[in-house]
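Reposting from the mailing list since nobody answered there.

I have sequence plus structure tokens for a pair of proteins and want to know whether others read the tokens the same way I do. The first protein:
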Amino acid sequence: MTTGINAPGRASIGPKTLRTDRWWLAPLRIGVILGFFVVYATVRIFMNEWYWVNDFHYLTPLYSPCVSASCVEGSSHLGTWFPQFPRFVPLSIITFAVLAGFRGTCYYYRKAGYRSLFFAPAACAVPEPHKSYTGERKFPLVVLNLHRYFFYGALAFGVLNLYDGVLAFHGKDGGFGIGLGTLIIWINLVMLWLYTLSCHACRHIVGGRLKNFSKHPMRYRYWTFVSKLNPKHGTFAMISLFTVILTDAYIMSVSAGWFSDLRFFN
């Protein structure tokens, strides 16, 4: 049976849409950003190098934690859980699986991906090219419903990133130090935590399944805090993409010797 704009009883309108504004600009812009991040992250995790700056203890978030015997000396903060990986296996395979799962199943990124990459639909009053709709009840889209479980993993990695940030206060002579890399790492940490804590799953976990808040004042306080962040979840999601890329690109550049870290205090 024909559905959508061609369904029986619908008005026969020739043009695809009667919108005269540049409705395609927003999905195009978001699609370019998402595509760039996917390509950049994929290339970086398969490089398996230039992720650690030993002089200042900078570890890129794309490789944290590095727990294989293949990791550069000093970068395995939590020890080596695995033997050496074959060259074709990314050192950050665990990190990539958890964090890509968290972002990939995120409610905001699902909306952005549907509109910008799958045109389902690309914009309001613009029909999508798909002839049928099954929701997220079948594989592989049913996997998107695991978002809250990926959220727990993202929390754990957020704590690990905080630990990396503390270690980044390291001077070249072994004492306390602050460099431009330290500041970039901590700016990224702030944005990652704002993105994580503003998550819809976080809001539900903190305040969901309660009949009333009066008996749970602490959870109400946490829920109120998360609720204030939640409307800006999409903003934090996109900004944190850029801060992750910036942090990784800076650490890669210093590690590769393309330029030196700007030091404020050694």
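The second protein, same order (residues first, tokens after):
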Amino acid sequence: MLVFSAPQVIAAAAWRGWGVLLLPLGWGIAYFSGMVYNVAQLSYRQSVTPPELMGRMNAAVRWVVWGTLPIGGILGGALGTLIGVRPTLWLAFIGSWAAGWFVFCSPLRHMRDVPAPAPAAGGTG
């Protein structure tokens, strides 16, 4: 995620005149990188998730990822109005990098297998 969100800095660095061409270039590279990231992370999730948990895993990930998009849209629009588009693009870049570093520094990075569930207390009764 740290590598794939890096092209957002190109869009945020656009300036007046010919520099405005950096905006679509940066976003185009960022969206292409996002597609590559999504294919890789979905393939990884499907390879480590047991078949009986696949539906729950996909539902949880979609709820978290797609469920936050409206919040980001509202927040981005409000910030773009209040502080301007360029500072909002910089905040978006910083936020995506902060999220990437959060995952990079978490214990999830070292997990290779889904832990087996602990046996239920009290037997089957």
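Reply #1 (J.P.):
I read it the same way you do. The CA atoms of residues 69 and 75 lie 10 Å apart.
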